[in-house]
Amino acid sequence: MTESCTACGHVNLVGSRFCSSCGRSLSGQDEASTEDLETLGGTEGTVDMYAPSSGAVLVVTSGHQAGTRYAVPHEELTVGRHPDSDIFLDDITVSRRHVELKVGTTGHVVSDVGSLNGTYLNGERLAETEAILTNGDELQIGKFKLLYLVSSTS
After folding, report:
1. What is the DSSP letter of 18?
2. CA-to-CA distance for 72 and 102, rounded, in angstroms?
3. What whole-number percentage of the chain has pLDDT above 70?
4. Strands 99-104 and 124-125, bridge-based pairing
5. Under a CB-based contact definition with an 8 Å cutoff, are residues 56 and 148 in contact?
6. Contacts for 2-5 with beta carbons within 8 Å, 24 or more apart?
7. Range list of H helices, the chain
8. Is the confidence at residue 47, as pLDDT, over 50?
9. How far apart are CA 27 and CA 31, in angstroms?
10. pLDDT value at position 54?
11. Is the pLDDT of residue 44 over 50?
12. Rounded Cα distance, 144 and 139, in Å
């Protein structure tokens, strides 16, 4: 099923909160600003922070998808607000094409692919170059925080 954007007329999937073409809110509801969000840092046990038995995962620790775990494959992974992204983060603070993760010689490499709000790794904004991810790194993409966890057997 589909839903048309009232601003640009683009046809979006039903249930989408923002137009994948122009970014306008489809629901008409006001979004909480980044400052209004509460992270899950002090609520132990709410989000499973265990490493996977094999491979790597990204665990959403804040944002409306908190607790969601995404397997990180051994090839390329895209993150963004575009519905075709491997990890779809449906919020206006996330660019349609925000981040890419690729496999490097020493593990996964993250790069911001031209997002407006930038990408933060452990609290510091990523430069235009790539950064190697290590176990326990925190990525901030828009108002979402994701924890990168790697199996000890990987």
Report:
1. B
2. 9
3. 77
4. unpaired
5. yes
6. none
7. none
8. no
9. 10
10. 52
11. no
12. 8
The answer to whether the CB of 95 falls within 8 A of the CB of 63 is: no
> How far is C-alpha 144 from the chain's CA centre?
6
Report the candidate in 139, 145, 135 with the shortest Cα–Cα distance to residue 125: 139
**How many Å separate Cα 108 from the centre of its chain?**
15
13, two tokens: 């999937």
For the record, the structure tokens of 43 come out as 């609520």
pLDDT at 109 over 70: yes
Q: Span 26-34, mean pLDDT?
A: 52
Region 54-58: mean pLDDT is 78
CB atoms near residue 45 (< 10 Å): 7
HSE on the CB side for 132, CA within 13 Å?
5
Q: CB neighbours (10 Å) of residue 63?
A: 23
Question: Using CA atoms, how far apart are residues 21 and 10, in angstroms rounded to an integer?
Answer: 6
Q: Is the pLDDT of residue 81 over 50?
A: yes
Residue holding tokens 């908190």? 66
pTM here is 0.64
Residue corresponding to tokens 């600003």: 33
